[in-house]
Design a protein that fits this description.
The structure is a single chain. The protein is α/β, with parallel strands linked by helices and about 190 residues long. The protein has a single domain (about 1-190), classed as Rossmann fold. Helices cover about 30% and strands about 35% of the residues. It has helices at about 1-10, 25, 30-45, 60-70, 130-145, 160-165; strands at about 15, 20, 55, 75-80, 90-95, 105-110, 120-125, 145-155, 170-180, 190. An 8-stranded mixed sheet has the order 5-6-4-3-7-8-9-10, with helices on both faces. Strands 1-2 form a two-stranded antiparallel sheet. Helix 4 links the parallel strand 3 and strand 4. It binds guanosine-5'-monophosphate. It catalyses: XMP + diphosphate = xanthine + 5-phospho-alpha-D-ribose 1-diphosphate.
């Protein structure tokens, strides 16, 4: 998606360790006009799918997913990072390894908000090694719901998550795919 790529080039900062900082428009300050354009693009790309719910993960997916949910006219549920105290039989639970912090944490979704009738679009800000998305897929599977697709804002195409998700036959729509980036000169190349 052209405007997202241009924005990443203009305001994204490449950090050592394969981290792309987009704090000025996605991860700290949020550009809602940009989120609206992204939401419209996902609506177009998933036009053939019958989606009744959006699922994301706290915290950085929530803003994008909320604007997408308004575009699709459906509710948005976010998987919560759990304290052991919340782990009861009312929740679906899975473990996720964090790309940015390296830690393993548990996430939950209440059984009240995900059920076998649901046709889910998963939305997240970044796709790197795919741990976050694999965790969300597992929660949907536990609920007996159907995954209709996955929308990602920025995929780092040089990490393995994208290939892993596509190999499952799931429709994955990443609005910008970074092919390579260099922390030394700050350059970023996108997949054509
Ligand atoms: P994965 O689970 O695919 O390895 O990583 C996805 C999660 O890690 C995303 O939800 C995002 O919060 C975070 N993440 C991964 N790579 C980056 C990055 O380069 N920049 C930022 N800002 N977040 C990232």
């Amino acid at each position: 998606m052209r405007i997202l790529e241009e924005r990443i080039r203009k305001d994204g900062i490449v950090r050592a360790g394969n981290v792309l900082k987009v704090d000025s428009f996605i991860n700290h300050q949020m550009d809602i006009a940009l989120f609206e354009e992204m939401a419209k693009e996902w609506k177009r790309l998933f036009a053939r799918k019958n989606i009744n719910k959006i699922l994301t993960i706290e915290a950085s997916g929530i803003g994008i997913a909320a604007i997408a949910a308004r575009e699709f006219g459906v509710p948005v549920v976010f998987a919560k990072k759990a304290k052991s105290i919340n782990l009861d039989s009312d929740n679906y639970v899975t473990k996720i390894q964090s790309f940015t912090h390296g830690k393993i944490y548990e996430v939950i979704v209440s059984k009240k908000y995900l059920s076998p009738e649901d046709h889910v679009l998963i939305i997240d800000d970044f796709l790197a090694n795919g741990c976050a998305l694999m965790g969300l897929l597992e929660l949907v599977e536990r609920a007996g719901a159907t995954v209709e697709g996955i929308g990602v804002a920025i995929e780092k195409g040089f990490q393995r998550g994208g290939d892993m998700i596509r190999a499952k036959g799931i429709q994955l729509e990443s609005l910008a795919i970074v092919e390579s980036m260099n922390a030394e000169d700050g350059s970023i190349e996108f997949r054509k």
